[in-house]
Design brief:
- This protein is α+β, with helices and mostly antiparallel strands and 160 residues long.
- Helix content is 26%, strand content 40%.
- The structure holds coenzyme A.
- The site of coenzyme A (COA) has 21 residues, from strand 4, helix 3 and helix 4.
Protein backbone atom coordinates (compact mmCIF):
# COMPACT_ATOMS: atom_id res chain seq x y z
CA UNK A 1 0.00 0.00 0.00
CA UNK A 2 1.43 3.43 -0.92
CA UNK A 3 2.09 5.77 1.97
CA UNK A 4 0.55 9.21 2.22
CA UNK A 5 3.28 11.81 1.73
CA UNK A 6 2.28 15.46 1.81
CA UNK A 7 4.52 18.47 1.28
CA UNK A 8 3.58 21.87 2.66
CA UNK A 9 5.15 25.20 3.50
CA UNK A 10 6.81 25.31 6.91
CA UNK A 11 5.48 27.62 9.59
CA UNK A 12 7.29 29.11 12.57
CA UNK A 13 5.72 26.41 14.79
CA UNK A 14 7.52 23.77 12.71
CA UNK A 15 11.03 25.18 13.01
CA UNK A 16 11.99 23.04 16.03
CA UNK A 17 11.15 19.86 14.11
CA UNK A 18 13.15 21.03 11.08
CA UNK A 19 16.19 21.73 13.26
CA UNK A 20 15.82 18.24 14.76
CA UNK A 21 15.55 16.60 11.32
CA UNK A 22 18.68 18.43 10.14
CA UNK A 23 20.52 17.42 13.31
CA UNK A 24 19.65 13.75 12.68
CA UNK A 25 21.75 13.76 9.53
CA UNK A 26 25.45 14.58 9.39
CA UNK A 27 25.07 14.97 5.62
CA UNK A 28 22.54 17.78 5.88
CA UNK A 29 23.76 21.38 6.19
CA UNK A 30 23.62 22.39 9.85
CA UNK A 31 22.10 25.85 10.15
CA UNK A 32 21.16 27.79 13.24
CA UNK A 33 17.51 28.02 14.18
CA UNK A 34 17.51 31.74 13.29
CA UNK A 35 18.07 30.97 9.61
CA UNK A 36 14.93 28.82 9.47
CA UNK A 37 13.01 31.44 11.43
CA UNK A 38 14.02 34.03 8.83
CA UNK A 39 12.83 31.78 6.02
CA UNK A 40 9.34 31.37 7.42
CA UNK A 41 8.99 35.01 8.34
CA UNK A 42 10.36 36.61 5.13
CA UNK A 43 7.59 38.44 3.35
CA UNK A 44 7.21 37.03 -0.18
CA UNK A 45 7.36 39.28 -3.26
CA UNK A 46 9.38 41.95 -1.47
CA UNK A 47 12.90 40.72 -2.03
CA UNK A 48 15.15 39.84 -4.93
CA UNK A 49 15.82 36.46 -3.40
CA UNK A 50 12.72 34.37 -2.76
CA UNK A 51 12.94 31.57 -0.23
CA UNK A 52 11.03 28.40 0.33
CA UNK A 53 11.07 26.11 3.36
CA UNK A 54 9.02 22.96 2.83
CA UNK A 55 8.11 20.17 5.22
CA UNK A 56 7.15 16.65 4.21
CA UNK A 57 4.77 14.64 6.35
CA UNK A 58 4.32 10.91 6.25
CA UNK A 59 0.92 9.93 7.58
CA UNK A 60 0.75 13.33 9.29
CA UNK A 61 4.16 13.19 10.95
CA UNK A 62 6.88 15.66 9.81
CA UNK A 63 9.81 13.55 8.64
CA UNK A 64 11.72 15.68 6.15
CA UNK A 65 12.32 19.18 4.88
CA UNK A 66 13.84 21.07 1.98
CA UNK A 67 14.96 24.66 1.67
CA UNK A 68 15.51 26.54 -1.55
CA UNK A 69 16.14 30.06 -2.75
CA UNK A 70 15.68 31.79 -6.08
CA UNK A 71 17.24 34.95 -7.44
CA UNK A 72 14.34 36.54 -9.28
CA UNK A 73 15.95 39.75 -10.54
CA UNK A 74 17.56 37.91 -13.46
CA UNK A 75 15.76 36.34 -16.40
CA UNK A 76 15.30 33.50 -16.20
CA UNK A 77 15.36 33.27 -12.41
CA UNK A 78 18.08 31.08 -10.86
CA UNK A 79 17.10 28.68 -8.12
CA UNK A 80 19.18 26.72 -5.65
CA UNK A 81 18.36 23.72 -3.49
CA UNK A 82 20.08 24.69 -0.25
CA UNK A 83 19.23 21.83 2.08
CA UNK A 84 17.33 18.55 2.03
CA UNK A 85 17.01 15.93 4.73
CA UNK A 86 14.75 13.08 5.77
CA UNK A 87 14.82 11.40 9.19
CA UNK A 88 16.98 8.25 8.81
CA UNK A 89 14.14 5.92 9.89
CA UNK A 90 11.93 7.25 7.08
CA UNK A 91 14.41 7.35 4.21
CA UNK A 92 13.86 5.22 1.12
CA UNK A 93 10.07 5.73 1.08
CA UNK A 94 9.88 8.52 -1.49
CA UNK A 95 9.90 11.45 0.93
CA UNK A 96 13.10 12.97 -0.44
CA UNK A 97 11.76 12.60 -3.97
CA UNK A 98 8.50 14.30 -3.04
CA UNK A 99 10.39 17.23 -1.47
CA UNK A 100 12.67 17.57 -4.48
CA UNK A 101 9.70 17.51 -6.86
CA UNK A 102 8.05 20.24 -4.78
CA UNK A 103 11.21 22.40 -4.94
CA UNK A 104 11.33 21.96 -8.72
CA UNK A 105 7.65 22.92 -8.93
CA UNK A 106 8.22 26.02 -6.77
CA UNK A 107 11.22 26.98 -8.93
CA UNK A 108 9.24 26.53 -12.14
CA UNK A 109 6.43 28.70 -10.82
CA UNK A 110 8.98 31.48 -10.23
CA UNK A 111 10.12 31.12 -13.84
CA UNK A 112 13.50 29.62 -12.95
CA UNK A 113 15.76 28.37 -15.71
CA UNK A 114 18.42 26.48 -13.78
CA UNK A 115 18.03 24.88 -10.37
CA UNK A 116 21.47 24.30 -8.87
CA UNK A 117 22.86 22.40 -5.91
CA UNK A 118 26.07 21.06 -4.41
CA UNK A 119 26.41 17.61 -2.92
CA UNK A 120 29.20 15.57 -1.35
CA UNK A 121 30.78 13.21 -3.87
CA UNK A 122 30.41 10.36 -1.33
CA UNK A 123 26.66 10.93 -0.86
CA UNK A 124 25.45 8.12 -3.12
CA UNK A 125 21.79 8.30 -2.09
CA UNK A 126 21.50 12.03 -2.78
CA UNK A 127 23.41 11.77 -6.08
CA UNK A 128 21.06 9.00 -7.18
CA UNK A 129 18.00 11.03 -6.20
CA UNK A 130 19.20 14.17 -7.99
CA UNK A 131 20.10 12.31 -11.20
CA UNK A 132 16.73 10.59 -11.19
CA UNK A 133 15.04 14.02 -11.08
CA UNK A 134 16.99 15.37 -14.04
CA UNK A 135 20.06 16.95 -12.44
CA UNK A 136 23.36 16.65 -14.29
CA UNK A 137 26.86 17.33 -13.07
CA UNK A 138 28.26 20.71 -14.09
CA UNK A 139 31.48 20.81 -12.09
CA UNK A 140 33.48 19.70 -9.06
CA UNK A 141 34.81 21.76 -6.17
CA UNK A 142 37.83 19.92 -4.84
CA UNK A 143 38.03 19.65 -1.06
CA UNK A 144 34.95 21.83 -0.61
CA UNK A 145 33.61 19.94 2.40
CA UNK A 146 35.41 19.36 5.70
CA UNK A 147 34.98 16.74 8.45
CA UNK A 148 35.23 14.49 6.50
CA UNK A 149 37.08 16.09 3.62
CA UNK A 150 35.17 15.61 0.38
CA UNK A 151 34.67 17.16 -3.04
CA UNK A 152 31.43 18.95 -3.90
CA UNK A 153 29.67 17.81 -7.04
CA UNK A 154 27.93 20.82 -8.62
CA UNK A 155 24.68 19.84 -10.33
CA UNK A 156 22.02 21.62 -12.32
CA UNK A 157 18.53 20.84 -13.56
CA UNK A 158 17.29 23.03 -16.41
CA UNK A 159 13.59 23.80 -16.25
CA UNK A 160 13.40 25.91 -19.42
C1 LIG B 1 19.13 12.25 0.28
C2 LIG B 1 17.84 12.00 1.07
C3 LIG B 1 17.18 13.34 1.35
C4 LIG B 1 16.89 11.15 0.23
O1 LIG B 1 15.67 11.01 0.95
P1 LIG B 1 14.75 9.70 0.78
O2 LIG B 1 13.48 9.96 1.46
O3 LIG B 1 15.51 8.51 1.17
O4 LIG B 1 14.55 9.74 -0.82
P2 LIG B 1 13.66 8.77 -1.72
O5 LIG B 1 13.14 7.65 -0.91
O6 LIG B 1 12.68 9.62 -2.47
O7 LIG B 1 14.71 8.26 -2.80
C5 LIG B 1 15.96 7.78 -2.40
C6 LIG B 1 16.60 7.11 -3.60
O8 LIG B 1 17.99 6.87 -3.30
C7 LIG B 1 18.23 5.49 -3.44
N1 LIG B 1 19.30 5.16 -2.52
C8 LIG B 1 19.22 5.04 -1.17
N2 LIG B 1 20.44 4.75 -0.69
C9 LIG B 1 21.29 4.71 -1.76
C10 LIG B 1 22.67 4.49 -1.90
N3 LIG B 1 23.46 4.24 -0.84
N4 LIG B 1 23.21 4.54 -3.13
C11 LIG B 1 22.44 4.80 -4.22
N5 LIG B 1 21.10 5.03 -4.16
C12 LIG B 1 20.55 4.99 -2.91
C13 LIG B 1 16.93 4.81 -3.17
O9 LIG B 1 16.88 3.52 -3.73
C14 LIG B 1 15.97 5.77 -3.89
O10 LIG B 1 16.04 5.61 -5.29
P3 LIG B 1 14.86 4.91 -6.13
O11 LIG B 1 13.61 5.68 -5.82
O12 LIG B 1 15.31 5.06 -7.54
O13 LIG B 1 14.81 3.51 -5.66
C15 LIG B 1 18.10 11.25 2.40
O14 LIG B 1 18.88 10.11 2.10
C16 LIG B 1 18.78 12.08 3.45
O15 LIG B 1 18.14 12.78 4.23
N6 LIG B 1 20.11 11.99 3.50
C17 LIG B 1 20.86 12.75 4.49
C18 LIG B 1 20.88 14.24 4.17
C19 LIG B 1 21.42 14.49 2.79
O16 LIG B 1 22.30 13.80 2.29
N7 LIG B 1 20.89 15.55 2.17
C20 LIG B 1 21.33 15.97 0.84
C21 LIG B 1 22.37 17.00 0.99
S1 LIG B 1 22.92 17.58 -0.62
Amino acid sequence: MSECITVRRATSEGVDVIVAIAASSALASQWGRERYEEMVSAAPCEVAVQRSLLVAELAGRPVGFASASALVTVAPAEAELENLAVLPAFQGRGVGGALLAAVLHWSAELGAGPVRLEVRSANAAALHLYRRHGFVQTGVRRGYYAAPLDDAICMECRLQ
